[in-house]
Amino acid sequence: MRVLGVDPGLTRCGVGVVEGVAGRPLTMIGVGVVRTPADAELSHRLLAVEQGIEEWLDEHRPEFVAVERVFSQHNVRTVMGTAQASAVAMLCAARRGIPVALHTPSEVKAAVTGSGRADKAQVGAMVTRLLRLAAPPKPADAADALALAICHIWRAPAQNRLQQAVARHTAHATKGRTA
Amino acid sequence: MRVLGVDPGLTRCGVGVVEGVAGRPLTMIGVGVVRTPADAELSHRLLAVEQGIEEWLDEHRPEFVAVERVFSQHNVRTVMGTAQASAVAMLCAARRGIPVALHTPSEVKAAVTGSGRADKAQVGAMVTRLLRLAAPPKPADAADALALAICHIWRAPAQNRLQQAVARHTAHATKGRTA
């Protein structure tokens, strides 16, 4: 199972691709950050996020996209941009028929560290260990994107199998009608 | 000047196209609502909003898109969907190189009624009068989208001329490089 994790943001949108299955060692396929200039117009920043996500989807062809679920109790200005960047990531995936899963920050922290209240350093340390990296991915948004992908692989195997079965069934039914 | 106004929302996204210039009678070109089912997955709802907005852009070829600026002091659940739907509208416009303007609800109300605190009925009544319609557009989201377009035509003539000049200059410079 190959998952693209997206830690949404307008200034820095973390992206990380992890491959593997629950219970086996995981492999990092790629990690990076899509950046947009803070002084650009909002519509142009969203366009730049779209182009960045599209490039990651083109290059790595993930089967699932895991996006951080955004809450509005945080900083008011930041959260709107985060919500909008996450919308772009979800839209890019949906356009390609890739299933999208949302995970909350505490679900992600709990999945990789055992505690929903772990700090950034702890998440970075566990991501480094779990993916057998030489050093923690920088910036934190990149590490968070990998953590999201790991969380998805570990949390949702049953859910994923169901989604894939539905997708296969739908593809089969469609083929049946075409033939 | 032809403007597509967008009152963003996931359940109902109001869209309205108005043509005219400040100081002359305005003409309604079209009005409607893009709806997405509340029980669909968020990524699929965003995709449906994108398809709806694309259809309006294809059919009416606006020169400007005016979107309501979303604030997060409102209902927490609703505002995230609104922010995400507005991101999709901005993205669709930016992809086509159409300038996007954001106007706050009180700017829109003040533009069409003279008061930033006007209620929905007052906005609907003024939209009906200004566009010489037989009845107020329903639902309110549709009327709000028309009000946004009117607000943009009235508020931003100087700003629009500047944006168009920049666009012409950029197009000219690009042409110069290609030749």
Automatic annotation (TrEMBL), chains A, B:
<keyword id="KW-0963">Cytoplasm</keyword>
<keyword id="KW-0479">Metal-binding</keyword>
<keyword id="KW-0460">Magnesium</keyword>
<keyword id="KW-0233">DNA recombination</keyword>
<dbReference type="GO" id="GO:0048476">
    <property type="term" value="C:Holliday junction resolvase complex"/>
</dbReference>
<keyword id="KW-0234">DNA repair</keyword>
<keyword id="KW-0255">Endonuclease</keyword>
<dbReference type="GO" id="GO:0003677">
    <property type="term" value="F:DNA binding"/>
</dbReference>
<dbReference type="GO" id="GO:0005737">
    <property type="term" value="C:cytoplasm"/>
</dbReference>
<keyword id="KW-0227">DNA damage</keyword>
<protein>
    <recommendedName>
        <fullName>Crossover junction endodeoxyribonuclease RuvC</fullName>
        <ecNumber>3.1.21.10</ecNumber>
    </recommendedName>
</protein>
<feature type="binding site">
    <location>
        <position position="68"/>
    </location>
    <ligand>
        <name>Mg(2+) 2</name>
    </ligand>
</feature>
<keyword id="KW-0378">Hydrolase</keyword>
<keyword id="KW-0540">Nuclease</keyword>
<dbReference type="GO" id="GO:0008821">
    <property type="term" value="F:crossover junction DNA endonuclease activity"/>
</dbReference>
<dbReference type="GO" id="GO:0006281">
    <property type="term" value="P:DNA repair"/>
</dbReference>
<dbReference type="InterPro" id="IPR020563">
    <property type="entry name" value="X-over_junc_endoDNase_Mg_BS"/>
</dbReference>
<comment type="function">
    <text>The RuvA-RuvB-RuvC complex processes Holliday junction (HJ) DNA during genetic recombination and DNA repair. Endonuclease that resolves HJ intermediates. Cleaves cruciform DNA by making single-stranded nicks across the HJ at symmetrical positions within the homologous arms, yielding a 5'-phosphate and a 3'-hydroxyl group; requires a central core of homology in the junction. The consensus cleavage sequence is 5'-(A/T)TT(C/G)-3'. Cleavage occurs on the 3'-side of the TT dinucleotide at the point of strand exchange.</text>
</comment>
<comment type="subunit">
    <text>Homodimer which binds Holliday junction (HJ) DNA. The HJ becomes 2-fold symmetrical on binding to RuvC with unstacked arms; it has a different conformation from HJ DNA in complex with RuvA. In the full resolvosome a probable DNA-RuvA(4)-RuvB(12)-RuvC(2) complex forms which resolves the HJ.</text>
</comment>
<comment type="similarity">
    <text>Belongs to the RuvC family.</text>
</comment>
<dbReference type="InterPro" id="IPR012337">
    <property type="entry name" value="RNaseH-like_sf"/>
</dbReference>
<keyword id="KW-0238">DNA-binding</keyword>
<feature type="active site">
    <location>
        <position position="68"/>
    </location>
</feature>
<dbReference type="GO" id="GO:0000287">
    <property type="term" value="F:magnesium ion binding"/>
</dbReference>
<feature type="active site">
    <location>
        <position position="7"/>
    </location>
</feature>
<feature type="binding site">
    <location>
        <position position="7"/>
    </location>
    <ligand>
        <name>Mg(2+) 1</name>
    </ligand>
</feature>
<dbReference type="Pfam" id="PF02075">
    <property type="entry name" value="RuvC"/>
</dbReference>
<dbReference type="GO" id="GO:0006310">
    <property type="term" value="P:DNA recombination"/>
</dbReference>
<feature type="active site">
    <location>
        <position position="141"/>
    </location>
</feature>
<dbReference type="InterPro" id="IPR036397">
    <property type="entry name" value="RNaseH_sf"/>
</dbReference>
<feature type="binding site">
    <location>
        <position position="141"/>
    </location>
    <ligand>
        <name>Mg(2+) 1</name>
    </ligand>
</feature>
<dbReference type="InterPro" id="IPR002176">
    <property type="entry name" value="X-over_junc_endoDNase_RuvC"/>
</dbReference>
